[in-house]
Design brief:
Number of domains: 2
Largest sheet: 5 strands, parallel
Structural class: alpha/beta
Shape: elongated
Strand order of the largest sheet: 2-1-3-6-7
Order of helices and strands: EHEHEEEHEHEHEEEEHHHEE
Strand content: 15-25%
Oligomer: single chain
Distance between the termini: 33 Å
CATH class of the largest domain: Alpha Beta
Radius of gyration: 18 Å
CATH topology of the largest domain: Rossmann fold
Number of helices: 8
Length: 225
């Protein structure tokens, strides 16, 4: 499985190449937008790890090309931490976003998680997941209820997608906490998870006090469908 690493810091590139290759990946490395676009045209990549700030432009340009031409999974690697850049990247279709400095084990875990989502997504109808009157347009990272778009935060969307990809499966609170990360790279805590579930129900359920889409399975966790 081949990863395209777009990073202009030689030290970071060297460390990431070693870690990825030790984990069984083949790695192509480039350091500019121009070289990244050329590499994408060559094909054969399974995922793009992408620095946001590059010498000849923005990583957003590479993300757009990766999504429009091949619908490749994209994870941003960047020192930029403000929420606006996070949201912009996710709105463009980026699958995850991790800020520097980061832990290698964390990055590898996120890579595997994103790749699993794409493998399971392969059979869905044009990148659409459905449950009840809710549709998740996975390629555009958008959610609709009765045909109307429902605005979600990045973390609300990640939480919903995590459960929606496995309808009928019960997710324990611990498993959800391990599966979703906040944008600063720290684990979401238990109280915050409760708030996110509550907000999702308020936005998607006909009656948030009596949820039928995102159900609580007493003593076990949460389940969609």
């Amino acid at each position: 499985m081949k990863v395209l690493l777009v990073e202009d810091d030689a030290m970071i590139t060297s460390g990431l190449c070693y870690a990825l290759e030790q984990d069984g990946f083949e790695v192509d490395t480039v350091s500019t937008v121009t070289a990244a676009i050329h590499a994408l045209q060559g094909g054969g990549h399974s995922l793009v790890l992408l620095d946001l700030g590059l010498p000849d432009g923005s990583g957003y340009t590479v993300c757009k090309a990766a999504k429009e031409e091949q619908d490749l999974p994209v994870i941003f690697l960047t020192a930029v931490e403000d929420e606006g850049n996070v949201v912009k990247g996710l709105d463009m279709g980026a699958d995850d976003y991790i800020t520097k400095p980061f832990r290698i084990r964390e990055l590898l875990s996120r890579i595997r998680s994103v790749l699993r989502r794409y493998e399971k997504r392969g059979g869905d109808a044009g990148g659409v997941l459905k449950f009840g009157d809710v549709r998740i347009l996975t390629r555009e990272a958008k959610v609709q209820k009765n045909g109307q778009e429902v605005p979600l935060t990045a973390m609300e969307y990640r939480l919903l997608l995590c459960m929606a990809e496995h309808p009928g499966q019960v997710f324990s609170r611990n498993r959800l906490l391990e599966s979703i990360w906040d944008v600063s790279g720290d684990f979401v805590n238990d109280n915050t998870l409760t708030v996110y579930v509550k907000r999702l129900r308020e936005k998607l359920e006909d009656d948030a006090a009596n949820p039928t889409l995102i159900r609580t399975v007493r003593g076990l966790g949460y389940c969609i469908g």
